[in-house]
Amino acid sequence: MEKLEIATIYTGNSCTGEAIIIPAMPVNPEYATAYVRYQTYGKTFTPEEGLKQGTIFPELMDFWVN
């Protein structure tokens, strides 16, 4: 069984509302359907490393590499 990645989103602006935990991607995705993964941000690359990687968010690199 695959490990289910979850994301925490908030119902209000600026993380002020109630927290809701949902899957980062659909559990049973359909073929030929576009999905945008919920993004959770933690640490960031330095500006120089971000230019090399094409993003300042390491989590996005982990998603594309795997």
Mean pLDDT: 76
> Helicity range of the residues?
10-25%
Unreliable parts? none
Query: Hey, roughly how much beta strand do the residues contain?
Result: 15-25%
Major sheet: order of its strands?
1-2
The major pleated sheet works out as:
2 strands, antiparallel
What's the structural domain tally?
1
InterPro entries: Spore_coat_CotJA
Pfam families: CotJA
Protein name: Spore coat associated protein JA (CotJA)
Please render the helix and strand layout as text.
Layout: E1 6-10, E2 19-23, H1 47-53, H2 58-65
Antiparallel strand pairs: 1-2
Plain-language structure description:
This protein is an alpha+beta fold and 66 residues long. It has one domain (6-65). It is 23% helix and 15% strand. The chain has two helices and two strands, in the order E-E-H-H. A two-stranded antiparallel sheet has the order 1-2. A hairpin with an 8-residue loop joins strand 1 (6-10) and strand 2 (19-23). The longest helix has 8 residues, at 58-65. The mean pLDDT is 76.
Features:
extended; Spore coat associated protein JA (CotJA); Spore_coat_CotJA; alpha+beta; two-stranded antiparallel sheet; 66 residues; 23% helix
Summarize the structure.
Pfam families: CotJA. The chain has 66 residues and is of the alpha+beta class. Helix content is 23%, strand content 15%.
